[in-house]
Amino acid sequence: MTEAAFRTIYSEYRDPLFRFGYRLTGSAEVAEDLVHDCFIGLFRGGFDEHRASLKTYLYGAMRNLCRKHFRDTGREVEETDVPVNSGPLDAAIARETAAAVRSAVQSLPLLQREALVLFEYEELSLDEISRIVDADVGAVKSRLSRARETLRKSLAMKEAAR
Amino acid sequence: MTDHDEELQKLLRRWDAPPVSSNLDARISQAVSRAPRSRWRSFTIAAGVFLALAGLAAMHLGSRPPRRTQVETRVIETRVDATGFRPVPNGSITVVEKGNNQ
Predict the structure, then answer these.
(1) A50 — contact with chain B (CB < 8 Å)?
(2) What is the share, in percent, of chain A residues with pLDDT greater than 90?
(3) Are the beta carbons of A77 and A25 closer than 8 angstroms?
(4) Separation CA A8–CA B26 (nearest Å)
(5) Among A50, A69, A115, B40, which is 20 to 30 Å from B47 by CA?
């Protein structure tokens, strides 16, 4: 892969992969490290376009790096706090809502979380997700459905608790 | 999706991801500029160079005239010191038995 081709791919996929990593790990710092490793892996090793599309390959590589990170650290979510109670009221409420959503998403089991993040935030198709997570479409649908159900309940509970 | 839920979707969107820091771009640029080439790429380059050199060597050997086989050209000279030799007049050959020197 030439450096120019690599830079084009980097500028296109840097943000989506970072968001994906951030929402899986809960840490911007960790997500940046993983995006870095993901792209360096691509640059050094290239990828086989006959086996997967570039998009599927990159999300799959990022997913594997996140899972490796979880294995290495022994935890599935970074413990970084989000400040929720500073600034004007509206902003504070927005931050509180964001923190509640973040907490609810990160409480999901990993398989449900990755399916939800890829579908709801990254707007990938079920077919693409099934290739990235190496599961059939039915399994992805089932994970999404369970994730939504869990989120509805946990966010409703948080809303009720306020 | 059968359980598509717009309200939940809107709520989920309230959680934004922060922007990527410029530090990442710098790290990537640095890593790319000093990254070793991929093994396959290095191998293909090395193989290309080897084949080119082998081709040149074959061409060079093919264009040279065949080496001439070294022929033994030494002249063997027989020298006979015939000083004082006088041919025997009316000489005859006599066969003598072994051990009977007369």
Answers:
(1) no
(2) 69
(3) yes
(4) 15
(5) A50
- The token duo for B55 is 């081709």
Interchain proximity A155–B21, CB inside 8 Å:
no
Q: Classify residue A120 by its DSSP letter.
A: I
* Distance of alpha carbon B8 from alpha carbon A101, whole angstroms: 10
Residue A157: Cβ within 10 Å count: 11
Structure tokens at B49: 């160079």
The answer to whether the CB atoms of A6 and B8 lie below 8 A apart is no
What is the value of pTM for the model shown?
A: 0.68
Residues 27-66 of B with CB under 8 A from A: 27-28, 31-32, 35-36, 38, 40
**pLDDT tens, residue by residue, A3-61:** 888 999 999 999 999 999 999 999 999 999 999 999 999 998 887 777 779 999 999 99
